């Protein structure tokens, strides 16, 4: 997984990998709204699942229809072995945000976005029933080094925050919003498919949450873009873009991919296939401002372009993550 900000490596790091396979089963399914369902899992070894919170990414390995997991193998090299399988024998893998972890009960919550039987994750979640098995690849509590998989790392002097995303970013942004300290001012903007998808977030007084429902009207991200423009005009210190190299590019579900040297990235504009940049948390916030954007890649790129290219916000204070891409086959 990508480099994170957890505690310094200790002697157990080489012995216990950062991530391991957990075999779990469904214990409860709760509908949160027309587009969301929360699945609670239990497992014999979930006491070893590290609860890093915030936007912690994990991998879900879904069963093959009618076959389950005939070729999936556990172990530290599970991914390498998975890649050697013929495509028809590979269990689908998707990246999700870990929800609440209850070690005492041996439970893990994961929120799923539902959009019909259009992909393996949504199809599985729609049919999930108590007792159904699933394979989760998540952080191991025994690992003492950096586990990675978390991207929320604003500079220490960031006091004016903007977090925005579509429905796929709701679990991560909701967890971040509810963890914010009382001394910061933050605007949270979330676009969801249906008005009934909104929920109450338990945030400090200085956090303003805005839910935007497409409700069948307008393109994906249209309302989000308009709202972010308005919020950025209030929050962002425009016109002071700093020079310097672009942030490192890190993969959403794998290790660091390294910064490329394409003309687009040299100009501060990411390639479409590398829409995942996280600023160095050691960098100073520009006028106290920090933005965190996640969701559909085209919308996120447009938002980032407005902040950096049009408003002149320092690109090193804008984190952005393309969780998925509209129209690309094989999505959830």
From TrEMBL:
InterPro entries xrefs: FAD-bd_FR_type (IPR017927), FNR_nucleotide-bd (IPR039261), Riboflavin_synthase-like_b-brl (IPR017938), SIP_FAD-bd (IPR013113), SIP_fam (IPR039374), SIP_rossman_dom (IPR007037)
FAD-binding FR-type domain span: 19-146
Domain of life: Bacteria
Annotated Pfam families: FAD_binding_9, SIP
CDD domains the UniProt entry points to: siderophore_interacting (cd06193)
Residue spans crossing the bilayer: none
Residue ranges, annotated region (Disordered): 237-273
Name recorded for this polypeptide: Siderophore-interacting protein
Species annotation: Sphaerisporangium dianthi
């Amino acid at each position: 997984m990508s480099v994170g900000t957890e505690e310094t490596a200790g002697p157990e790091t080489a012995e216990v990998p950062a991530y391991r396979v957990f075999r779990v089963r469904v214990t409860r399914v709760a509908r949160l709204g027309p587009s969301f369902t929360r699945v609670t899992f239990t497992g014999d070894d979930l006491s070893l699942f590290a609860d890093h919170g915030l936007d912690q990414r994990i991998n879900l390995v879904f069963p093959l229809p009618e076959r389950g997991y005939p070729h999936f193998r556990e172990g530290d090299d599970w991914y390498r072995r998975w890649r050697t399988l013929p495509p028809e024998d590979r269990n689908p893998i998707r990246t999700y945000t870990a929800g609440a972890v209850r070690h005492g009960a041996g439970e893990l919550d994961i929120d799923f976005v539902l959009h019909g039987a259009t992909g393996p994750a949504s199809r599985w979640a729609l049919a999930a029933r108590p007792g159904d098995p699933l394979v989760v690849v998540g952080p191991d509590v025994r690992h003492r080094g950096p586990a990675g998989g978390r991207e929320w790392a604003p500079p220490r002097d960031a006091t004016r925050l903007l977090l925005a995303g579509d429905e796929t970013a709701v679990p991560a942004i909701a967890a971040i919003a509810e963890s914010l300290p009382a001394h910061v001012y933050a605007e949270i903007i979330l676009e969801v498919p249906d008005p009934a998808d909104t929920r109450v977030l338990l945030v400090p007084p200085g956090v303003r949450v805005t839910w935007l429902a497409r409700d069948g009207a307008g393109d994906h991200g249209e309302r989000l873009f308009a709202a972010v423009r308005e919020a950025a005009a209030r929050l962002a210190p425009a016109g002071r873009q700093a020079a310097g190299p672009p942030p490192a590019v890190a993969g959403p579900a794998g290790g660091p991919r390294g910064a490329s040297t394409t003309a687009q990235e040299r100009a501060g504009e990411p390639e479409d296939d590398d829409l995942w940049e996280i600023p160095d948390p050691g960098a100073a916030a520009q006028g106290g401002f920090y933005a965190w954007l996640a969701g559909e890649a085209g919308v996120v790129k447009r938002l980032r372009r407005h902040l950096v290219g049009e408003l002149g916000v320092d690109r090193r204070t804008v984190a952005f993550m393309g969780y998925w891409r509209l129209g690309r086959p094989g999505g959830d």
